[in-house]
Write a structure and sequence with these properties.
This protein is 44% helix and 13% strand. By secondary structure, it is α/β, with parallel strands linked by helices. It has two domains: 2-135 and 298-356, D-Maltodextrin-Binding Protein, domain 2 (3-Layer(aba) Sandwich); 137-296 and 372-431, Periplasmic binding protein-like II (D-Maltodextrin-Binding Protein, domain 2, 3-Layer(aba) Sandwich), CATH 3.40.190. The strands form three sheets. A five-stranded mixed sheet has the order 2-1-3-11-6. Strand 4 (122-123) and strand 5 form a beta hairpin. Helix 18 packs antiparallel against helix 19. The longest helix has 20 residues, at 2-21. The radius of gyration is 23 Å and the shape is globular.
């Protein structure tokens, strides 16, 4: 009996000593499906790294952006790993807010990252964030409803075709909306969609001299087309719908078409969660024949703030979560179709993935067709397809997003929304010293 007590005492002491030496890192991430899945699979990481404990802060997209931006700008130090996007990485890296990822391990294979994705996450040849998943945007549509409408979706549709198909597919009596599009205000919500869409209409945020362009006919054509389309064929309360809300509607069979992130394809085609999994087709984002499609380029990525005291542990986690091993782990648990897409060339060369993911080729084609350095029909002084890569865009984009969401909700006219957007952009660019 005494021996047993002594042994337990030793065990307790060693357990306490281990707990005292275990390093805890805090990870801020978005509440999208791939990140939620990652949290469920982290036993694999902790088994390999028993000295590292993981703390999660999981937030809705707009809230996440606000929290991590405030924390890194004020050197708050709340997070050791941040989930950020292609917009933030080059701006924050140039301000020395992020650590370069130069300790990802010998077997990480940085060169395997798709060049279009790696380029947006690098500054001066150094990688400052590792992509968890990469995406463009494309059309997801109901093949059965398209056939019922007597139409055939082209691989590369026009906006006129989308409008024609939406009108024919809308069946309000049976709860079917012809098209579901983002309406929720936010620079990364409705403005990601509308900015990419505006490129295909020949619009731009600023001319070569940084003068705002919301008073030009191209933006009027974009916003009027969008509002009219959504009023005729979109879901009720569309001004509150972002990515997750439209995903749920599509999975429930309530959308004939949905133009959004390519990453959604694995969710809408998953029979465990989607009632229309076997009826989904894919096409490139629409255009207007002007040489630009309405698709974006984005990567949700893991970065390490320069202020962390736990850089080595954080880099081990980033390496694990964005590795080839992690892709194989997801495949073994959830099937190849559910592996985070859009980051590694090797995934798209994998016959098992090609077989399991009917959307694979269209996803890669969409990613490779987006050009952040020449995003618009007319010349512009900025880079970024669905955003403008300047620090002021985060606040300005959200302001304009609120104005356009209000126009969609019928709280203001398209003309009023555009005038207010022009005024807000002019004030921001004047204050920032871009225009005199």
């Amino acid at each position: 009996m005494k021996l047993r007590t002594f042994t337990l005492g030793l065990f307790s002491a060693s357990a306490l000593a281990f707990a005292a030496h275990a390093e805890s890192i805090t990870i801020a991430t978005v509440n999208n499906g791939d990140m939620v899945r990652m949290q469920k699979l982290t036993d694999d990481f902790t088994a390999k790294n028993p000295d590292i404990q993981l703390q999660w802060v999981t937030l809705e997209e707009n809230v996440l952006r606000e929290r991590v931006t405030t924390d890194i700008a004020t050197k708050g130090g709340q997070y050791d790993v941040m989930t950020i996007g292609t917009y933030e990485v080059p701006i924050w890296a140039k301000q020395n807010w992020l650590l370069p990822l130069d300790k990802l391990g010998d077997d990480y294979d940085v060169k395997d990252i798709i060049p279009a994705i790696a380029g947006g996450l690098s500054v001066d040849g150094k990688l400052y964030a590792a992509p968890f998943y990469g995406e463009s945007s494309f059309v997801m549509y109901r093949k059965d409803l398209m056939e019922k409408a007597g139409l055939k979706m082209p691989d590369a549709p026009t906006w006129d075709f989308i409008k024609q198909a939406a009108d024919k597919m809308t069946d309000r009596a049976n709860g079917v909306n012809g098209v579901c599009l983002r309406g929720k205000a936010g620079w990364g919500e409705n403005m990601a969609f509308l900015t990419a869409m505006s490129n295909s209409f020949g619009a731009r945020w600023f001319d070569e001299n940084w003068k705002p362009q919301f008073d030009q006919p191209e933006w009027k054509n974009t916003l009027q087309f969008y509002v009219d389309l959504m009023k005729a064929d979109g879901p009720e309360g569309a001004s509150s719908n972002g990515f997750n809300e439209n995903l749920a509607l599509f999975q429930q069979g309530k959308c004939g078409m949905w133009i959004d992130a390519t990453v959604a394809a694995s969710f809408v085609s998953d029979p465990k969660n989607s009632t229309v999994a076997d009826k989904v087709g894919y096409a490139l984002a629409p255009d207007n024949g002007l040489g630009k499609r309405g698709n974006w380029l984005w990567a949700w990525s893991l970065a390490i703030p320069a202020g962390t005291q736990k850089a080595d542990a954080a880099q081990k986690f980033v390496s694990w979560a964005t590795s080839k091993h992690y892709a194989e782990l997801v495949a073994s648990k959830e099937g190849w179709a559910n592996v985070p897409p859009g980051t590694r060339s090797s995934l798209y060369a994998n016959p098992e993935y090609q077989k399991a993911a009917p959307f694979a080729k269209m996803t890669l084609d969409s990613i490779n067709s987006a050009d952040p350095t020449h995003p618009t029909v007319k010349p512009v002084p900025y880079v970024g397809v669905q955003f403008v890569a300047i620090p002021e865009f985060q606040g300005l984009g959200t302001t304009v997003g609120q104005l356009f969401s209000a126009a969609l909700a019928g709280q203001s006219s398209v003309d009023d929304a555009l005038k207010q957007a022009q005024d807000a952009a002019t004030a921001t660019m004047t204050e920032g010293g871009y225009i005199k």
